[in-house]
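User: Hello! My lab partner asked me to get a predicted holo structure for this protein. The small molecule is fe (ii) ion, SMILES included with the sequence. Please write out the structure tokens.
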Amino acid sequence: MAIEWNASLSVGIEEIDNQHKELFRQINELIHACHQGRGVEAVGEVLSFLDSYIRLHFRTEENLMLKYDFPEFQAHRLQHQEFMANLAEVRRRFSEEGPGVHIVVITNRILAGWLNTHIRRSDKIFGAHVESLKKAQ
Ligand SMILES: [Fe+2]
Ligand SMILES: [Fe+2]
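Assistant: Hello! Below are the structure tokens for the protein in complex with fe (ii) ion.
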């Protein structure tokens, strides 16, 4: 059930790949914490940690995109904002209903699923852009 990072998700930029690995680790930790029936405080801590880490990750990617003049920067940034809205939805449900199976379900559906698709469809395009610049040098 846990979603793991694997080599097919590599975008070819080590810093980004490492952050993606950490994000999957944190999402799995969140799911694990809910399954274990850990309390509101413990699960809330994992959610806050995920929230600040994802902000760091998006900032890292967006700064690299500006640095490498990525033509799809604006559209990509909108996708990041969409993820932040999804995460806010998970946090809202959590504050209303507390930790439990419903958090596991929506975390899998709207966080893990989104991240997987976004890396495959969008982050990889940026990775290819950086790669093509390096080859052109
Ligand atoms: Fe990413
Ligand atoms: Fe991204």
